[in-house]
Amino acid sequence: MYKPWFSGLASALACAAFVFLLGGGPYDMIGAFVGAGLGQWMRRRLFAHHLNQFFVTFVCVAAAALACTGTLRLIGIFDPVALSHDTAYIGAMLFVIPGFPLITGGSIWPRLTSPLAFSAWLRAVHHPDGHARRLGRGVMVHLHPEGFEPLGLNPWVNGLLRFVAAFVGVWGFSVLFNSPQRMCLTAALIGAITDTLRLELQDFSVAPEMATFIGAFLAGVLASAWRSSVRRGWLPPHLGYPRICLTVPSIVIMVPGLYMYRAMWYLGSFDTVNALDWAFRAFMVIVCLPIGLAMARVATDKSWRYDI
Length: 308
Prior knowledge:
It contains 13 helices and two strands. By secondary structure, it is mostly helical.
């Protein structure tokens, strides 16, 4: 439904918002904006030529990471602080997250192949004898998946900015899922409420898995309430969107992209202990997403509540 430039812009805004929700600051968001925008624009252009999706994903992930890093290096000429914002490149890659397959089918692993390969490529350099020497940082651009530095914002200001960022992020991902604009805005409103709640719960020491479950559950309840309002005539009939088209975009922003990339990065480094640790953390959070939606459906839909 959208031209490549608009899809790229939506990707840029969504990933920049995603980075803020992960804890990133202005420089991180700028880097992710440039990288994700360029990467998604390239992906759309290359897919138009019917190229293999794994090849396209690899090329676009590489371009996104390098564009993000290059942007921060350029800013670093004027403000050296930007040179320390390496983690932003992870946010620049998040446009490749397969939201619908991840939530509804679990077929995420092929899409992770290219980020994994790129991670390993950045991580290892080969000696003339053919043996790989693992480095503490990527040999090309010195990347390392550390967390973001705390921004130190006032809790109320932080909560408001999270609401806005979640709205923008879910809207952007809805565009990538090819939803009409009214559907994008509806999903964005649901996502802004539920993802802000999830992050605020984590601030109060609620486990990420439980916070994610509560956020996904609320997203399912709100989507059901929206459809019920349409059926009862409280909202116009043309706003009666399929439930899944509201719930998946609203919770895909809860996908632990940083966890997944850390797992891939450590796996590319042959650090299996840390790779398994972060992979299991990501798995536990990801599992809570469809469980939360399923429990919401059980609570709001009699056909799901009873076995007939």
